[in-house]
Amino acid sequence: MNDLELIFTMLGEASTTRIARDKDAQGFIENKEAAKKGGIVAGVARKELEQQSVRKVSTPDNFLSESEKKKKLEDKRKK
After folding, report:
1. Interatomic CA distance for residues 44 and 46, integer angstroms
2. CB neighbours of 37 closer than 8 A, spacing ≥ 6?
3. Contact 59, 46 (CB under 8 A)
4. Cβ atoms of residues 15 and 36 within 8 Å
5. Helical H segments across 2-63, by residue range
6. 25 within 8 A of 38, measured Cβ to Cβ
7. Cβ atoms of 9 and 46 closer than 8 Å
8. Number of domains in the chain
9. How far is CA 62 from CA 1, 10, 13, 58, 66, in A?
10. If the chain, 79 residues long, is cut into consecutive pieces of 10 residues, what is the mean pLDDT of each piece?
């Protein structure tokens, strides 16, 4: 994960937390709505940066190939 991916992830999480607290979200449904709104905030910011910089924020570097996923799962099962 590159720096910008981390920053936008953190923005989504912080936005969600603030929205949930400000609306005094109680229970799954209200928190789910806050999470959607927090994600929208981060998504809009990401899209704006991509439009202004003409480069994508997300990179393929943070994805594991299928064989790497299987290996990690097998390693976890052995522990």
Report:
1. 5
2. 15, 16, 19
3. no
4. no
5. 3-22, 27-53
6. no
7. no
8. 1
9. 5, 16, 19, 8, 13
10. 93 98 97 98 97 90 70 77
- Can you state the angle between helices 27-53 and 3-22, rounded to 10 degrees? 140
For 57-60, the CB contacts below 8 A with 24+ separation are: 57/2, 57/4, 57/5, 57/8, 58/5, 59/2, 59/5
Confirm if 38 and 15 have CB atoms less than 8 A apart: yes
Distance separating alpha carbons of residues 13 and 35, to the nearest angstrom: 8
Measured CA to CA, the distance from residue 7 to residue 23 in angstroms comes to 24
Question: Which single residue is written with the structure tokens 């899209």?
Answer: 47
Q: How many CB atoms lie within 10 A of CB 68?
A: 10
Cβ 61 vs Cβ 2: under 8 Å? yes
Print the domain residue range for 24. 3-78
pTM of the full structure? 0.74
Tell me the one-letter amino acid at 42: A
